[in-house]
Amino acid sequence: ANIEQAKDVILAVIGKITDTGHMVLTFNGETVADIPLAPLADEAPEYERPYVSQAEYKAWAKVPSLGDVPESRDLGADLVTLMASPDIASRRWIWEQYDNKVGGDTVQAPGGDAAVVRVHGSAKALAIATDCTPRYCYADPYEGFQKLYFDTVVYDPTTMRFVAELAGTDKIVLGTDQPFTIGEDHPVEFLDSCKFDASARAAIGGETAKRLFGINAFIAWLGYGLSQLINIFDLVPAKPPTEPVLLNLFMQPEAGLAGAIGRVFNSHGYFTTWSNLLVAITLTVLYQHPTVRSATREWLRNSALLMITMTFVLYNILLAPYAKVESFNIITNLLTHYLTPIVTIAVWVVAGPRGRFNFAHTFSVFIVPIAYLVYTLGHGALASMYPYGFFDVLTYGYASVLTLMGGVIVGGYVVALIYYGAERLRSR
User: Which string of DSSP letters, residue by residue, matches 22-82?
Assistant: First the structure.
């Protein structure tokens, strides 16, 4: 009703979802159709045709080994035969008979490596290409279909390489003059081809994204790891803490290896350490399993993205103008406060994964940052050690520090909304 009034449109309820398992259609109060849905979904019959193993298939196909193929006795005649083959000869006479400008959405006309057609009224386009070597698929369906995928999707030198992530197949034609169907004549070709198709859609399409995830994870681990090496071997002496308030549970660590554990522990009181470590972990998981989805992984990925962005922004606004970075810390400062944040944001923009930053995440991504703030105040109250001067309640009092923390959360929420909005725009 609110939509009807606000937008001045006609609105009517035409149905409701039930748990009966039936689709019931009525007209003027009379039931005109009552269709059980199970036979169309969960209880639909499965059609299984006989098939054989790949070894049995090769024996049936009688594909000779390369050593059994006779050498050519007339290279000139073989060349003429090849040039006359439809696989090599020009297809121009076929596609030039059709008007490829209908609708005005042709971006790249036929004749290249792929035709590109704009989706009318949008900034998106479809790249369409066909390619196959049937005799390869006949000899070894799995390997032949693998070559088809890489030739068409991955190594095509122009358009298709930019749309690999969305590429797929529409029809499989293998080793015969007719569109392929499962049957006893070709018992395993289709099964092996589909086997590769299922794995290739994820593996080939996400290969670039996987590399980017790996690079991102490596940079984050490098910054975090070098920071901990500096702490372990005491390469850059730390400044002494302020005077204790209640009870200093975590005393200033001793110099050298004797204080290594204490320095490593204290280093994890910094938001920079938390954000870089979370980026390293989540991007490592994405690198290892780029296609696996789970609510927890998506939440941690988005939390890491927000936290590393806040690290970059807060450091440059509040700390960089006054920071006196020395010795080996110059390298770790560059990695943890600049390179890792910039690379993480860039990888998210380029590789995503898309469609995984929803509106609920604009709230849930603050669980870890708020946990950090609680830890900082609790640890500081006991140990009189605050990682950042602007969080030091001994100097500014709880009211000022809590106000600042609230402002940081509000600013962070603006960042989360920006990411959410960008996700919505990219997903259209």
Answer: EEEEEETTEEEEEEESGGGTTTPPP-------HHHHHHHHTPPPGGGSPPPS-HHHHHHHH
Calpha distance 360→408 (Å, rounded): 19
Q: Are 127 and 116 in contact (CB under 8 A)?
A: yes
Q: What is the DSSP letter of 240?
A: P
How does pLDDT run across 273-328, given as a tens digit for each residue?
999 999 999 999 999 988 787 889 999 999 999 999 999 999 999 999 988 899 99
Alpha-carbon span 275 to 298, nearest angstrom: 16
Inter-residue long-range contacts of 173-179, CB under 8 Å, 24+ positions, other chains counted: 173/132, 173/134, 174/134, 174/137, 174/138, 174/141, 174/144, 175/61, 175/134, 175/135, 175/137, 175/138, 176/134
- Residue 82, C-beta contacts closer than 8 angstroms, at least 6 positions apart: 88
pTM flag (> 0.85):
no
Strands 106-108 and 115-118: antiparallel
> Closest by alpha carbon to 63, among 136, 132, 133, 131?
136
